[in-house]
Write a structure and sequence with these properties.
Layout lengths: L1 H9 L20 H7 L3 E5 L2 H16 L5 E5 L5 H9 L2 E5 L10 H7 L4 E7 L8 H11 L2 E5 L17 E5 L12 E5 L18 H14 L6 H4 L22 H16 L3 H15 L4 E3 H4 L10 E6 L1 H13 L19 H4 L6 H9 E5 L6 H12 L1
Parallel strand pairs: 2-3, 2-4, 4-5, 5-6
Antiparallel strand pairs: 1-7, 6-7, 8-9, 9-10
Length: 388
C-alpha cells in the first residue's frame, strides 16, 4: 500500500505555475485590451524581453546620455539584463531591502548619476514595488520609471494598478495571461510614440502555435506534468541567461487569442490563493518561523498573485521544498542567487560588488502554486508539511 501511494504521488505533480490557455476567444479581438490597458497605449512584441528592451531603448533615445545606465534589482530574472544590454545600456544592480521583494531605496538613490536613464521596478510574484516612492525618485532625477509587470496583471480596469512611465507585460509560458510567447509595452505620452520600434503583427505560425498550446494545456495537468518534469533537456525551473538577439512584433495568431485569454484571466476565481493565505495565516499564529510576504508587504487580498511567496530559514526552506516536491505540490525556489552569480552573467556584471541581502533572499524564498488545479487535499498536505 505504501509503495502504491508513492507511485500515485510520482504520477501526480502539480506545476509551480501556469493555467490552461484558451483557444476560443469569447470577446471581440479589439474590445478588451483597450479597456484594461487604459490610460496606456499598447505596442506588441514577440516577447516580454523584447518589450523591455524597447522600453530601455526609449529611455536611451529620450535622455541622450553617453554610456547610459539603467538601475535594476540584484535579484530577478536574467532576462532583465538581456534586455538592458541589447538596448545598449549598462545594467547597474541595487541590493534588496531586508525580508522584502523590493530594492533598497537608499542604495538605489545613491546609484543614480548623470548617466542614469531609467529605473526598472519589478513586480515580483505579483507583489508591486513601492511605486510611489520610486516615481518620486525618478521624477527628482528626470529619469524614466519602467515597470516590469511580467508577473502581475489586473483582474479589472484599474487606473492605479500600473503607474510607471512605461509598463512591460509578458505573455510567455507560466505568466498571468499566457500565450506561450509575446509581450507588450504600455506607454502614456504621445511623445514616446515616435521613439518606439516600428512593426506590425507578423503573419503565419497559427497552426504551430495552436498545436503547442494544445500540448501545453495537456502537459500542465497535475496527472501529466511528471512527463515534461522528467525531461532534463526542457530545463523546467532552470534559471539561465539568454542574450536577446533581436526585437520583432508579436505574431497575428497570438494577437487573435489575446482578448479571450485576458477575459479568461479576469473570470478565473482566486480560490487557491485565498485558501493558501488563510492556511499560512493559521500557521503563523502557531509560531511557525516563516514570513508571509504578501502580508508583510500589505498586499490586498483581492490582488492576484502569480505565486504565493514565503521566506523561510535556508536549511528548513530546502527541507520543505524537497518534501513538498516529493508530494507533488508544485513548490519553487525561484532564482538560485543574485544576478552576478547566475551562469553567463558574471562577466557582464563584474565589478559591481556583492549583494548579500539578495543572496540571502535567494536562499530563503519558497513559492507555492496559486493556480486553480491545486485541490483542497493538496492545501491540507501543504499545511501538514509546513506544520511538521
Amino acid at each position: 500500500m505504501e509503495r502504491s501511494g508513492r507511485a500515485a504521488v510520482m504520477f501526480y505533480q502539480s506545476p509551480p505555475v501556469g493555467d490552461p490557455i484558451s483557444l476560443f476567444p469569447r470577446v471581440p479581438e479589439e474590445a478588451l485590451p483597450r479597456d484594461i490597458f487604459s490610460p496606456y497605449t499598447p505596442r506588441y512584441f514577440d516577447s516580454g524581453t523584447s518589450a523591455l528592451a524597447a522600453a530601455v531603448g526609449v529611455a536611451i533615445r529620450l535622455k541622450r546620455k553617453d554610456t547610459p545606465e539603467v538601475i535594476l534589482p540584484a535579484y530577478g530574472c536574467p532576462d532583465l539584463v538581456s534586455a538592458v544590454v541589447f538596448a545598449g545600456a549598462r545594467p547597474v544592480l541595487v541590493d534588496m531591502a531586508p525580508d522584502r521583494p523590493w530594492m533598497d531605496l537608499e542604495l538605489l538613490s545613491s546609484h543614480i548619476n548623470c548617466r542614469t536613464v531609467a529605473i526598472i521596478a519589478v513586480n515580483l510574484f505579483g507583489i508591486p514595488e513601492r511605486m510611489d516612492a520610486l516615481r518620486k525618485i525618478s521624477a527628482q532625477s528626470s529619469i524614466l520609471l519602467i515597470e516590469d509587470s511580467a508577473q502581475a496583471f489586473p483582474v479589472q480596469q484599474d487606473d492605479s494598478f500600473w503607474v510607471g512611465d512605461l509598463v512591460v507585460i509578458s505573455f510567455g509560458r507560466g505568466k498571468p495571461v499566457s500565450l506561450l510567447g509575446g509581450g507588450a509595452l504600455l506607454y502614456r505620452e504621445k511623445v514616446l510614440d515616435g521613439l518606439l520600434p516600428e512593426g506590425d503583427a507578423r503573419a503565419g505560425g497559427g497552426a504551430l502555435i495552436w498545436l503547442n498550446i494544445v500540448i501545453y494545456n495537456l502537459m500542465i495537468s497535475p496527472y501529466l506534468y511528471w512527463i515534461p518534469q522528467g525531461l532534463p533537456f526542457l530545463h523546467l525551473g532552470d534559471t539561465q541567461y539568454h542574450p536577446l538577439s533581436g526585437i520583432e512584433a508579436m505574431d497575428s495568431a497570438r494577437l487573435r487569442l489575446l482578448a479571450g485569454n485576458m477575459q479568461k484571466y479576469r473570470d478565473d476565481s482566486p480560490n487557491t490563493q485565498l485558501a493558501l493565505a488563510e492556511t499560512i495565516r493559521k500557521l503563523r499564529e502557531t509560531g511557525k518561523d516563516i514570513i508571509d510576504l504578501p502580508v508583510a508587504c500589505d498586499i490586498p487580498v483581492n490582488r492576484r498573485l502569480l505565486r504565493y511567496p514565503l521566506l523561510v530559514v535556508p536549511q528548513r526552506r530546502d527541507r520543505l521544498y524537497r518534501r513538498l516536491r516529493r508530494e507533488g505540490l508544485g513548490p519553487s525556489r525561484m532564482y538560485p542567487s543574485s544576478l552576478p552569480n547566475i551562469s553567463g552573467l558574471y562577466g557582464l556584471l563584474q565589478g559591481q560588488g556583492k549583494f548579500p541581502v539578495a543572496d540571502e533572499f535567494s536562499r530563503r524564498i519558497l513559492t507555492l502554486p496559486t493556480h486553480n488545479r491545486v485541490r483542497k487535499p493538496d492545501i491540507e498536505k501543504i499545511r501538514q508539511i509546513i506544520d511538521s
